[in-house]
Specification:
Largest sheet: none
Distance between the termini: 61 Å
Number of strands: 0
Order of helices and strands: HHHHHHHH
Structural class: mainly alpha
Helix content: over 70%
Length: 260
């Protein structure tokens, strides 16, 4: 067992929890947006996933099998596009409905600051859930990489997976942390974009958010299988930079609108 790998697991999990909570705290202190909005972002992300995730699990295998006659690449391409579009539709339409109906009925102001905090909560809880999975992976690594702690099966396929786990290095774990930070940035950008769809009454912003989200998820699904983790993270980084640019642009635009 490599103690540096265990330490990396622990640091990554800690930061995936601490960073979104720190962002939420900063928004509370800087703009006075209450933790309640952060919590609503987290809550409605979970509500959406309660519907979204079972649908994905029930349909992705039949879809892949149905696409097999079209060629060897068709199942992966079709699945990537399908999963991306599902994520975009469920999450962005979910945000739209929350803003348009729940927030207005609860007299929560549709300001850029609220959109920022809502996005931080939406992306933040996803990061925290991933952190819990990282902790689970760390425990599994410790158990399986420590000789004699867990009885090992004779199945060659299982042993191959165990050897892959034992060969992990810190560089195999760190990209996951970078992806979470980039994903939080994108969730904030999409939250502001969908907020603009409601505030300006322009559905084009909602459609753009759906397509943007779908493109990110589809690219991630396809590239990680064909090009590897580093290329995938590089592409997500480009999307995240675009998201950061959008956040600043929309922030200024909404600020000018509120003062006009």
């Amino acid at each position: 067992m490599d103690s540096l790998v265990v330490a990396t697991f622990a640091v990554v999990a800690l930061l995936e929890i601490a960073v979104p909570l720190t962002l939420g705290y900063w928004i509370v202190r800087r703009f006075g947006v209450p933790w309640r909005v952060f919590g609503l972002g987290a809550l409605f992300f979970i509500v959406v996933q309660v519907i979204h995730t079972p649908l994905v699990l029930a349909t992705q295998v039949p879809l892949s099998r149905a696409l097999l006659p079209l060629g060897t690449a068709a199942p992966l391409v079709g699945l990537a596009l399908y999963l991306g579009l599902l994520a975009g539709l469920f999450e962005e339409v979910g945000r739209y409905l929350v803003y348009r109906y729940y927030f207005r009925r609860r007299d929560i102001p549709l300001t850029r600051e609220v959109g920022l905090q809502f996005g931080a909560g939406w992306g933040g809880v996803e990061s925290i859930i991933v952190a819990l999975l990282v902790i689970s992976s760390m425990i599994t690594y410790i158990a399986l990489a420590s000789n004699g702690v867990v009885p090992l099966p004779d199945d060659p396929a299982v042993m191959a997976q165990i050897e892959t786990l034992r060969s992990l290095t810190p560089l195999d774990i760190l990209p996951g942390l970078a992806e979470r930070m980039m994903t939080i940035t994108l969730h904030v950008a999409w939250s502001l974009m969908v907020l603009a769809a409601v505030v300006y009454e322009r559905k084009a912003f909602l459609i753009l958010a759906i397509l943007w989200h779908a493109a990110v998820d589809a690219a991630a699904v396809y590239l990680v299988q064909t090009q590897g983790v580093l290329v995938t993270e590089a592409v997500i980084f480009i999307f995240a930079i675009a998201g950061l640019a959008y956040i600043f642009a929309q922030w200024r635009r909404m600020g000018e609108r509120s003062t006009s």
